[in-house]
Every structure is written in C-alpha cells, then in structure tokens.
Amino acid sequence: MHIPTIGIRRGLVGACIGGAVGTLVATTIALPTAAAQPGCTAAGLSSAIGSVGAQTGDYLASHPGANDAVTNAGGSPDPEGAIRTYFVAHPQEWADLQRIAQPLRALRQQCNVQVAPADIARLFDAMAS
C-alpha cells in the first residue's frame, strides 16, 4: 500500500464527491424550469452520475494503464496535461470513456445543466464530512 497513491485516490474521490453537491444544489434550484423534462431532477442527475461513475470505475479497473495514468496524475504538476498526454496516446480508451460518459452529455443538452466530475466531488466531500 503506497501512502501517496491512497492520498491521490482520496483526493480524486473527494474531488468527485464534492462536485455532486454543487450539481444537486444547482439542479434543485433549476427544478421549476427543468422539471418538465424527464431526468432533469436531482434524482435523475444523481442516477446518471452514479451509473457513469460505476461504469468508469469498472473500466479503469480493467484498464490498468488508464487507471494508473488517472491515479498518478494527482501527483503531477499538471494533472490535466498528464491525463491528456496518456489519452492522446491511447485514443481508443478515450473513445470508450467518452461513450461511457454519454448519458451525462445528454443530460447537459436536455436539461441545460452542467454536470462535471467536480460536482460529484463536492457531494462526496460533503457526505464524508
């Protein structure tokens, strides 16, 4: 067990969790205008986020190179650049993850609500406090 890896993973999980709180709050505020559209509720967004998160976790667990790249990016001076570099060199893995994330893109378009990993991170951070 590597302490830096645990810290990075906790940071990534914390970042993912915290973002969901923001999404849920923003979604709840937007509910009066978005409620007419199916899935444009806090419950609909949470379900989509959960499904995409679980599928992403399964994908990363079965693709150790991608998992390592994302896990180790937190220790890099440019985490986004490190992740980008890996996936530029592995375009099929990027395409797979884009396919997994499609339900979130669909909700962004359908509900006019931005859903991002940072939103999930805020929720998890709040829940873990």
Automatic annotation (TrEMBL):
GO molecular function annotations of the record: heme binding
InterPro entries, per database record: MHB, MHB_sf, TAT_signal
Residue ranges of the TM segments: 12-31
Record keywords, A-Z: Membrane, Transmembrane, Transmembrane helix
One Pfam entry name: MHB
Magnesium listed as a keyword: no
Top-rank taxon, per record: Bacteria
Signal as UniProt keyword: no
NCBIfam families per the UniProt record, alphabetical: MTB_hemophore
Name this protein carries in UniProt: Haemophore haem-binding domain-containing protein
